[in-house]
């Protein structure tokens, strides 16, 4: 068991440790008439989705180098459930948020399940008990269940009941797994009544974060995060960007991501239009308990004034509005930076990759990248954009950033 650590001070520093969830048995339990309730878009062909996801994991492993640094949340949970107190805490928390399913009536039976059976129930909702619980197809979008900021981690408060069990899973792992021992004081738990999901938080630098006020993250959740981080971490500035409360832009990272220290991928109809969004910076007043708020005309200005250097904004889908809309729909803006200037995206978003080529990125397929580096380690140097197959994965409506939760990046 390798020691895990929380260490994320940038969106683009070289990846060191990352949590993922390769789709599993839960996908085969998704019924068409439950899609809307599950917040899921389609019925995925599981074997193909797993193959695509495993290729992504191989790329991640090649980048991080160290064996065991691409970590499955199911493995962490299986190890966590070997601890009796962890199982009981998980079940108690689950019963507390599942009043409509009356799980509390089965609390003792759930507590008596062997660890492997509880694991199956936690991920799929399936068990030998007379309980009807939904599967967790969205768990493959692991980014949303928590957000690591520096040496702290914020546990999500999902906006919908469909994803509540995912947060309880992460809470159990962070509180009980031996590898996270020592981080008890670094867990940020938000108050009841607010919502927050990890896709809305981007770590700009050691002192600045971005956070989206979106369909899934409430203004109350943002204010709670602002006060906690400004009080207990080295974060000095939190920039909030208001988004339409629509499913197509459910999180900030569906319309904006970082590619390097100075380059970002955007969905221009929402990000590049001056005055379209309310963009406000929050800072701590050194002379009082009040917050200092600073309005900005647009996100590019906010970042430039905050970080002291200009940013290049590339357009998801290129210059055509139609292509921008089409490729944002299949997560063209949801790139994942594995290192500065090394990004992963769905290859189907060809116009987006054309924009990356204009910026000097070498375009490669995921299989080509793995084949080229089969006998050698990956070394930083040139800018690379890796095309990931995503015919099945993209049908779930989430990109590579959605499917990865870095817990540690190498500080450079």
The tally of beta strands, per DSSP, is 18
Tally of separate domains: 1
Arithmetic mean pLDDT: 92
Structural class comes to alpha/beta
Provide the β-strand percentage band.
15-25%
Helix content: 25-40%
CATH superfamily: L-arginine/glycine Amidinotransferase, Chain A
The number of helical runs is 13
CATH topology: L-arginine/glycine Amidinotransferase, Chain A
Give the termini separation. 26 Å
Label the CATH architecture. 5-stranded Propeller
Our Rg estimate from Cα atoms comes to 20 Å
Largest sheet: spatial strand order? 6-7-8-11-12
CATH class membership? Alpha Beta
Largest sheet: 5 strands, mixed
Low-confidence stretches: none
Description:
The chain has 412 residues and is an alpha/beta fold. It has one domain (15-409): 5-stranded Propeller (L-arginine/glycine Amidinotransferase, Chain A). It is built from 13 helices and 18 strands. The protein has helices at 35-38, 46-64, 73-80, 84-97, 107-111, 115-124, 164-176, 219-232, 268-271, 299-307, 321-329, 350-358, 366-372; strands spanning 15-20, 70-72, 146-149, 152-155, 187-188, 201-203, 208-213, 237-242, 256-258, 263-266, 279-284, 291-296, 312-315, 336-339, 342-346, 362-365, 384-388, 405-409. A 5-stranded mixed sheet has the order 6-7-8-11-12, with helices on both faces. Helix 7 (164-176) links the parallel strand 4 (152-155) and strand 5 (187-188). The longest helix has 19 residues, at 46-64. The protein is globular and about 60 Å long.
């Amino acid at each position: 068991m390798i020691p895990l650590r929380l260490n994320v001070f940038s969106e683009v520093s070289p990846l060191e440790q990352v949590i993922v969830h390769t789709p599993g048995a839960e996908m085969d339990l998704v019924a068409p008439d439950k899609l809307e309730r599950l917040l899921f878009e389609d019925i995925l062909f599981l074997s193909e989705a797993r193959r695509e996801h495993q290729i992504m994991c191989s790329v991640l492993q090649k980048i991080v180098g160290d064996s065991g640094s691409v970590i499955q949340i199911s493995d962490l949970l299986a190890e966590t459930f070997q601890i009796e107190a962890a199982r009981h805490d998980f079940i108690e928390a689950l019963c507390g948020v599942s009043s409509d399913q009356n799980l509390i009536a089965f609390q003792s039976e759930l507590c008596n399940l062997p660890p492997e059976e509880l694991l199956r129930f936690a991920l799929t909702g399936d068990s030998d008990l007379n309980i009807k619980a939904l599967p967790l197809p969205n768990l493959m979008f692991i980014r949303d269940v928590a957000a690591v900021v520096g040496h702290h981690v914020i546990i999500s408060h999902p906006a919908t009941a469909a994803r509540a069990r995912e947060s309880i899973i992460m809470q159990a792992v962070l509180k009980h797994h031996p590898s996270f021992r020592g981080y008890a004081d670094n867990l940020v738990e938000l108050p009841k009544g607010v919502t927050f999901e990890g896709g809305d938080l981007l770590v700009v630098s050691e002192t600045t974060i971005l956070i989206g006020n979106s369909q899934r993250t409430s203004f109350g959740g943002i204010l709670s995060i602002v006060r906690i981080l400004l009080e207990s971490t080295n974060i000095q500035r939190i920039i909030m960007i208001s988004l339409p409360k629509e499913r197509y832009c459910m999180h900030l990272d569906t319309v904006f991501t970082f590619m390097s220290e100075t380059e970002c991928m955007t969905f221009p109809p929402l990000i590049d239009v001056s005055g379209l969004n309310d963009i406000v910076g929050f800072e701590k007043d050194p002379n009082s308990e009040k917050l200092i708020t600073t309005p900005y005309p647009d996100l590019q200005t906010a970042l430039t004034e905050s970080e002291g250097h200009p940013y290049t904004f590339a357009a998801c889908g290129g210059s055509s509005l139609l292509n921008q809309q089409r490729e944002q729909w299949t997560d063209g803006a949801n790139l994942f930076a594995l290192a500065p200037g090394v990004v992963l995206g769905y290859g189907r978003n060809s116009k987006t990759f054309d924009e990356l080529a204009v910026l000097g990125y070498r375009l490669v397929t995921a299989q080509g990248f793995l084949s080229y580096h089969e006998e050698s380690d990956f070394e930083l140097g040139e800018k690379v954009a890796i095309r990931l197959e995503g015919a099945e994965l993209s049908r779930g409506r989430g990109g590579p950033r959605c499917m990865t939760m870095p817990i540690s990046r190498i500080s450079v």
